């Protein structure tokens, strides 16, 4: 399993991203940001405000507000699916789920120490797959309801990749010939599940891949794709105890099948996409 993980997270750019977006880096960033913002606002306002104490007070208030807003935005963005880490782990999780495991990169600060690690979680996907498939089948009776919600909530999940320009193989792509459920969501390191557009630029071709399941897929294949897409994001939030509150969504007629968390993976996907 080392090779797929190395392919997903081993690139220097990904490692750099992980460091610059770690909880420890944000922890160090906050006071540095406060000082920088304080100096910037002070240099702007000292011409306008003559009273020294009023100046210091107003500069401090503005700096606290701006720093808090930036840290809040960074903290909030960490709760969403991360295109540079979570999406890269889709392919690894597709392999691991056959052994009832899911992996994610989670990190948080504890006692002023960063805690970034790979976390492997035992997960039986079959019950989530069954529950989400039933939900999608129910929704399919309402005209385009589920597909419209997926388009609305997943429209920002677009991968842009640059590949070396090669002539397409004659006779069409083998992806279309594979069963939609069996083929990997990501064909290799970066590529997504469905091509939406391609632009030739010299020797390289940049391609956009959307993570929205194709409307023509059966409900089970759509459910599998959605569960895989959000698997790493879910595990990251689960192990760092940052999952959103409990859901009113009942996963199938058998009720809640998840005993490890207050919010199951299928409930998380339902709340993110189908609500
Ligand atoms: Zn579930």
- The SS-based structural class is alpha+beta
Summarize the amount of helix as a percent range. 40-55%
**What's the tally of helices?**
10
Mean pLDDT: 80
Proportion of β residues?
15-25%
Q: Rg to the nearest angstrom? A: 22 Å
Keywords: Membrane, Transmembrane, Transmembrane helix
Region (Disordered): 165-199
Biased composition (Basic and acidic residues): 180-191
Pfam families: DUF4481
Characterise this structure:
The chain has 275 residues and is of the alpha+beta class. The chain folds into two domains: 119 residues, no CATH class; 150 residues, no CATH class. Strand 1 and strand 2 form a beta hairpin. It is elongated and about 70 Å long. The two termini are 35 Å apart. About 8% of the residues have low confidence. Zinc ion binds next to helix 6 and helix 10. The site of zinc ion (ZN) has 9 residues, from helix 6 and helix 10.
Chain-wise SSE layout:
Elements: H1 2-9, H2 12-20, H3 23-45, H4 52-77, H5 90-96, E1 101-110, E2 113-122, H6 125-140, H7 145-154, E3 158-164, H8 174-177, E4 194-201, E5 204-210, H9 219-239, H10 265-274
Antiparallel strand pairs: 1-2, 3-5, 4-5
Protein name: Transmembrane protein C9orf91
Pfam family, one: DUF4481
Keywords: Membrane, Transmembrane, Transmembrane helix
